[in-house]
Amino acid sequence: MLRKMFVIFGASDVLWMVFAVSQASQIDIFPSESKIFAQIGDSVSLTCSTTGCESPSLSWRTQIDSPLNGKVKTEGTTSMLIMDPVSFKDEHQYLCTAICKDKKLEKAIRVEIYSFSKDPEIHLSSPPEVGKPVTVTCSVPDVYPFERLEIELLKGNRPMKVQDFLEPSEKKAQETKSLDVTFSPTDEDIGTALVCQATLHIYDDDSPPKVRKTTKELEVYISPKDTAISVNPSTRLQEGDSVTMTCTSAGLPAPRILWSKKLDNGNLQLLSENATLTLISMRAEDSGIYVCEGNNPVGKDRKEVKLIVQEKNFTVEISPGPQIAAQVGDSVVLTCDVRDCESPSFSWRTLIDSPLNGNVRNEGSKSTLTLSPVSFENEHFYLCTVMCGQKKLEKRIQVKPYSFPSDPEIEMSGPLVSGNPVTVSCKVPNVYPSDRLEIELFKGESIMMNKTFSKDLSKKALETKSLEKTFIPTTEDTGNVLVCLARLPIDEMEFELKQRQSTQTLYVNVAPRDTTILVSPSSILEEGSSVNMTCSSNGLPAPKILWSRQLSNGDLQPISENATLSFMSTKMEDSGIYVCEGINQVGTSRKEVNLIIQGRESNKDYFSPELLVLYCASSLIIPAIGMIIYFARRANMTGSYSLVEAQKVC
What we know:
seven-stranded mixed sheet; five-stranded mixed sheet; elongated; glycoprotein; immunoglobulin domain; disulfide bond; cell adhesion; membrane
């Protein structure tokens, strides 16, 4: 709150108190008034000053010695009493005392309190309406002292009432005082100003009083009347038609238009705040009483119109068809479609009122029931009920769950071996209803077997059904194709026959046989000779060859996987039984050969041609060497060498 500072200082409302402390001192007081007026909540400063005394002692007190409720600030020959903010406690006669040596002087000033901080307020008991009495209240808040207050109310320049409040208050307090005037506005009062003027006579002399005033322009109202409704094209309509209704109402200020529909319980349902109400694509339930209301701050006026909307015939279609086969685990969507009904109401149920086990979604003229995932619980007749106005139609669709999710599985009891019986199994997993299942087994173009299954009324469940056939394969079956064909017809459902098939090409195996060993040059050899042993075996697939040597304990020691086993230089220890095995996935065929390695004769070893040649050569060379040495030595003694002589000696 802004505060006004009153300072008693010099010519600016300041009181100077000058005390004579000697015969040469003097006291000057300005202004000459002995009291000031302070607004509650403002700030006031009283200043006391002396002349003719260098170091006076200054103090403040009230005449009745009550608390100062202010702050004193003294500097030199000046002392200041500050009251901030001013309150009722500050209304006193204040004395400033100055002591200079043995002299004491006092000067007094009175502080009067008042409150007049807010403008008057104008209030009307109700919105002013032409011809209807209204009370104007002019109130002045937080005023003191109210016995000096005067309130005057004017309409334009003409006084309406003046009121004084002469009774003195019993206590010091801020009070709100008011003046009331009741009058009936006329059309001429429109735009006229109401003026509330408050005057507070706080001064005892001819000084001007404190004045505050508030002005409020009169807004004179006229209650709505002459409300009317126009309807285009008519109040009788067909479903799907549109209608426009326009409402007018007179009043001041101009009435606000509200459109509502009257409900069965009599309450009004707000539709629009525009003067024009347009309803499109109307339905039978849009029939009823429509109310236009014009209202302004002083009243309202209503007008009603009744609309009649006649129903149209509508049709309902349900898809996909009257029956549907739904795969267990899949999703299926049933759609209910309405024609010639703008705002249908949908509902779904089963024929036996069991749980739907699905999700319903309505959008416009369509409603869908989604069954996801489809299960045995969804095997029902489903009914879609449509309400269009007061009319009702129903359509139904039958859902038959089935399960036929995967192709048949062909399994063999073992590998196909020519001449050995084998059992073929054709399995159809997770099938329902199994009593509708038919399985056929073909080999090439020839049917081997077919099978159907009886109905089990005790349960609804996914089952695995199979067909088994035992036959003896031959090599002629290789390349033929086994075909397992499964069919699942479901009564008279309008869809393609459900069928699945699997194929498997036959590969007939032949166990190894006719295993033979060819030894070259012979199975009986002399030590040091080479030998090749070649093994062959017939079978399908072609047998793998494995050479082994039979140990002394009867076990076989594998030595080679080549068809031919070769020894480049045989030894005595290579003698033994060698086994050739022809092996494939369906069998083994074995053949043995006994390899014998013989040692050489001793005389033949001693007089071999090479040794005889070496022996003769050595017998000639040694004597020749001796003779050469002998003649060489003689030649050294005689100094000559004669080949003839040497020959003679020989």
